[in-house]
Amino acid sequence: MALTLIDISHLLVTRGNAQYGGEAVSQLEHALQCAHLAELAGETPELVTAALLHDIGHLLAPEGEGAERAGRDGLHQCVALPFLRALLPPAVLEPVRLHVDAKRYLCTAERGYQDALSPASQHSLELQGGAYSVEEAVQFVSQPFAHEAIRLRRYDDAAKVAGRSTPAFEHFMHTLATVTARHALASQMPVALPA
Ligand SMILES: [Fe+2]
């Protein structure tokens, strides 16, 4: 089932108060901080939207414990893609799909990156397959949108500060609506904008 803008808004508002992993922020605070950091860095509306939605898979499939959680931590970046594919272009979907792989890449490519991860992120790294080998890292970074995913990863890592102020949710929903409208025009598909 394809998500609409209203579905996405509803998901973020109604389920976004869940804690973001073991971090000191909620899922919605994390999404807003990540999108804000992308915007401050001068990223395109598409990458700002990717930052806003990169973990929406967690809201579609809330995490349980044990093995079930392990599977989801390794796959949350893919859970949402079938639901978003009709609405958003590859410039949004691909960085979302690759943002966990970007963490595995940075652990190999950048000295000190892994040690600087939060304890919760170090734990999820194990569930996600750990640092890449050099060969895997080279293969990763040669893909389209790998560099956007790496930048998204850096915003993701920094978007965990309790109490940090951000623009309102509506600000980023406007960015999302702009990106979906642009994609619909490019695809010659009708799109229902929120009232
Ligand atoms: Fe995240």
UniProtKB/TrEMBL annotation:
Query: What superkingdom does the record give?
Result: Bacteria
> Which InterPro entries does this UniProt record tie to the protein?
HD/PDEase_dom, HD_domain, OP_Dioxygenase, Phosphonate_degrad-assoc
GO molecular function list: hydrolase activity
Q: Name one Pfam family in it.
A: HD
Question: Where does the record place the HD domain?
Answer: 28-63
- Return the protein name: Phosphohydrolase
Instruction: Give the organism, scientific name.
Output: Acidovorax carolinensis
